[in-house]
Design goal:
The complex is a heterodimer. By secondary structure, chain A is mainly alpha-helical. Chain A contains 14 helices and four strands. In chain A, strand 1, helix 6 and strand 2 form a beta-alpha-beta unit. In chain A, helix 7 crosses helix 8 and helix 11 runs antiparallel to helix 12. Chain A is globular. The two termini of chain A are 30 Å apart. Chain B is an alpha/beta fold. Chain B folds into two domains: 124 residues, no CATH class; 68 residues. Chain B contains eight helices and eight strands, in the order βαβαβββαβαββαααα. In chain B, the strands form two sheets. In chain B, strands 2, 4, 5, 6, 7 and 8 form a six-stranded mixed beta sheet that branches. In chain B, strands 1-3 form a two-stranded antiparallel ribbon. Chain B is globular. The N and C termini of chain B lie far apart (42 Å). Classes of the chains: A mainly alpha, B alpha/beta.
Chain lengths: 338, 198
């Protein structure tokens, strides 16, 4: 691989790991990481992308496992499964091993669904590619095709911190429960208004259940609906809900930023996987551009149609080589993640 | 949309071959005629073409109709078109009419091909000057001259080559109407003497 592409790929991976540390720290994993950013964390998307990128930081991986062991009840396993089925940005075997570890604790029975089907036995791979092979491998991870030392959890994780914008969704889950109501409400409070199909697509719930939740919320008298043509648009007046902004003083604060994490993480994973293919570096610039366009432009088009990207962004990267893509891509990730 | 130069043609076919290899597609071997073939072999002064005319597919040691092209090949060709800003139908089989295979390609065409590989999954065989004369004469008569007539003139066919070509075109279309148009074309080319020999 060309040195510049290799360096850029490594820089991207390091940036993603730093982002994951920040998000996990906001949720309560142990480790001194300055919280930052104004984006709402999507916990299920975070778990899925961590099964891929946290493999490049063993400490992060184990702190995540520790947090899940103690706080896994805050994860909506059905939504996590749906996100993985739709976007395939997590690693199901890493997730399976984590889930099997978690189900040793009886409070995590819902995670059993993820630990049902280990792969056919084959030569295991190193879970942490930057570390050497362990003397004694963790049996559960080995069963799922991964070599790592025994998973010893430190038990230092804390519950989600409600006083940070990042944990806004978990705060709403604590108030409204772990079904779609929390996501729908979070979406309404981070957007001026929206219609059920759009909210369902961006929160990864079925349109029917989102529609039902919105209709029920409307009955409360604190969420309102207006008609635009055949579409019903819903609004949660932000001023009425400012008491939820527990991280700011007075009336100056704003609700946090909604980031379509599942799509963004999918974009990052597909880009990373593609440029790290052994064959990719041998492609001509034109073929690299075709492959990047094929894999990424549909996701960019989705982000554009949902209003998270400028209209001309996809056009500005289409037909560009990997080296021309990389800076644009890094700007995109930085812009969307604050 | 810019026309296709010799360099663009080479880049486009190279990219298509690379793409087929990257996607692990089955090997493809096509016979190409028309402007792209003239460009590739440097047979005339023309510097650009509009498309790549696939005449046949090489299969089982013989030539068969290339129609229809597989969907995955069309998708790959579209990707190349977008990448290199080529016409959407830059790779097409319009010229490969069914009558060509029913009535027969010029004798010995396959033995006169010049083959070039574009990676392990794509080979293109360009037809020879003699076969270009045959196909260009047919096209010039059939489609009222135009660029086909200019290409034919640029190939500087001899009388014997034109006579062989004219006889072959009659196997494709033996109608009286085509015969009359063919005679007019030969006169237009300054070979009126050949009409009586058809």
């Amino acid at each position: 691989m060309k040195t510049s592409l290799l360096n850029s790929s490594r820089e991207l991976r390091e940036a993603v790991v730093a982002l994951l540390w920040k998000q996990w720290a906001a949720l309560g994993v142990s480790g001194h990481v300055a919280p930052g950013g104004n984006a709402v964390v999507d916990p299920e998307a975070l778990v899925l992308i961590s099964t891929v990128f946290a493999r490049h930081d063993a400490r992060l991986f184990d702190e995540m496992a520790d947090w899940l062991q103690q706080n896994g009840i805050w994860i909506n396993v059905l939504r996590l499964t749906r996100l993985q089925r739709e976007h395939e940005f997590g690693d199901e075997t890493v997730l399976g091993a984590l889930a099997e570890h978690m189900t040793k604790n009886s409070s995590h029975t819902k995670w059993k669904v993820l630990a049902k089907a280990p792969p056919e036995p084959a030569e295991p791979a190193l879970l942490f590619p930057h570390l050497t092979s362990p003397n004694q491998a963790d049996e559960i991870f080995r069963k799922w095709g991964w070599l790592r030392s025994s998973l010893d959890l430190r038990g230092l994780s804390r519950p989600p911190r409600p006083n940070q914008p990042a944990s806004f969704l978990l705060k709403l889950r604590a108030l409204f429960g772990r079904q779609s109501r929390a996501e729908v409400f979070a979406w309404l409070l981070t957007h001026p208004s929206g219609h059920p199909a759009q909210i369902a697509r961006e929160t990864a719930y079925f349109r029917g259940s989102v529609q039902n939740v919105l209709n029920e919320l409307e009955l409360s008298g604190h969420v309102f609906a207006t008609r635009e043509g055949r579409e019903k648009h819903f609004v949660a007046p932000h001023d009425q809900w400012r008491f939820l902004l527990t991280w700011t003083q007075g009336d100056s604060g704003a609700f946090p930023q909604w980031v379509p994490w599942a799509v963004l993480f999918t974009l990052i994973r597909r880009y990373h996987d593609l440029v790290n293919l052994e064959t990719f570096a041998g492609y001509s610039d034109d073929l690299q551009a075709i492959e990047l366009t094929r894999v990424l432009v549909p996701l960019l088009a989705r982000l554009t149609s949902e209003g998270y990207l400028a209209q001309d962004f996809a056009g500005s990267v289409t037909s560009r080589s990997a080296e021309q893509w990389m800076p644009q891509f890094q700007h995109l990730v930085a812009d969307l993640t604050g | 949309m810019p026309a296709i130069t010799s360099a663009t043609l080479d880049r486009a076919l190279g990219l298509l071959g690379e793409l087929l290899a990257a996607q692990n597609r089955p090997p493809q071997h096509f016979v190409v005629c028309g402007g792209s073939s003239l460009l590739a072999l440097g047979l005339i002064r023309r510097t650009t073409t509009q498309d790549v005319d696939i005449l046949a597919r090489v299969e089982g040691g013989g030539l068969v109709t290339p129609r229809p092209l597989p969907d995955w090949l069309l998708v790959a060709a579209s990707a190349v078109a977008r990448q290199l800003d080529l016409p959407a139908d830059w790779l097409n089989v319009q010229v490969a009419e069914e009558t060509l295979f029913r009535c027969g390609l010029p004798d010995g065409l396959q033995q006169r091909l010049t083959t070039q590989s574009y990676g392990p999954r794509l080979a293109i065989s360009y037809i020879s000057r003699r076969d270009q004369i045959f196909l260009k004469l047919h096209a010039a008569v059939d489609r009222d001259g135009g660029r086909h007539l200019q290409d034919l003139r640029d190939l500087h066919p001899t009388g014997n080559e034109l006579l062989d070509a004219a006889r072959w075109t009659r196997t494709q279309d033996p109608s009286d109407g085509f015969g009359m148009l063919l005679g007019e074309m030969l006169k237009h080319l300054g070979h009126e003497n050949l009409v009586a020999q058809l």
